[in-house]
Write the structure tokens for this entry.
Amino acid sequence: MSKIILTGDRPTGRLHIGHYVGSLRRRVQLQNEGGYDKMFVFIADAQALTDNADNPDKVRENVIEVALDYLSVGLDPAKTCIFIQSQIPELCELSFYYMNMVTVSRLQRNPTVKTEIQQRGFGGESIPVGFFTYPISQAADITAFDATTVPVGEDQKPMLEQTCEIVRRFNHIYGETLVEPAILLPDNAACMRLPGTDGKAKMSKSLGNCIYLSDDSATLKKKVMSMYTDPEHIHVEDPGHLEGNAVFTYLDAFCRPEHFAEFWPEYESLDALKAHYTRGGLGDMKVKKFLLKILDAELAPIRARRKQYEQDIPAVYEMLRRGSEEARAKAAETLARVRRAMRIDYFDDQELIDAQAKKYKQQA
Ligand code: TRP
């Protein structure tokens, strides 16, 4: 069976380092290692509109931001098909058919949707239908491309489960047609859910605790130096705590063994550094400076690449247009398969026409 990787992001803001360790870095790695048949990465503007219907400009403007972020981390349009969700109308048609495979109560039980409904203050019956049903459209996103592997964060787990249920139900009714995808989660807990710079559970634009991939060096420095650490670690001699300490969580997500030789040869490993910190005698500032060096080394080439692409915005749109065309061709194939399976391919089904003709001839 072929291996098809697919994932996407809502264009509601620039992408941050939480997106990076949660999924972007993995995508680039997969892209460059090869060993799969095709990778699709898309900008989920139609999904973003499900709870930003009154804010089309925000979505529209962030499409290009996300595209620039993609290119700047190293996604390569020569290897990876990058496209815009709304440009693939086949996805809407698939969603419409999948709606018959899902109950209202099943959607109500989707934990991610539940949380989002609370966060957005949609009370009771005032949830937009489009928002409520976006897990169905997400199943269309995934199955339209026969995706087998979906690299996303933990919060997307319920979406993947929902997709698999739709696939199974569809295949049960109409015969083997759709491919069941598997989720690909980050391999370490820090990457799974990177906290904000304030130590809050999640990096999120609305909390103002993000480090963006496009932040310049001075902004990065300011953000790292004011990061939340351990409130009980007041004097250098005090023992420090790692639990909930955002600086150490970021180190778990970004630090590689070679960073010690390069930036802080006094320590041989992250474990040694942690041991000193918890023992006491190691100040937060020193650890933050180390983290800053690591982040700066990781983000500098990303920033530089972004600057280059920013110089040729029309070319970025052109890349998206081509990617969308390629994606549309693939989605159209799947849709034809789905229509055939659902027996709504009347005009291509000579057998149906012949059978009906025969039936009426016999009656005459
Ligand atoms: N829900 C995802 C997010 O909020 C975006 C998304 C839409 C997606 N469709 C998808 C991710 C399909 C993976 C596969 O970021």
In short: The pocket of tryptophan is lined by residues 6-10, 44, 47, 138, 141-142, 150, 152, 156 (CB under 6 Å).
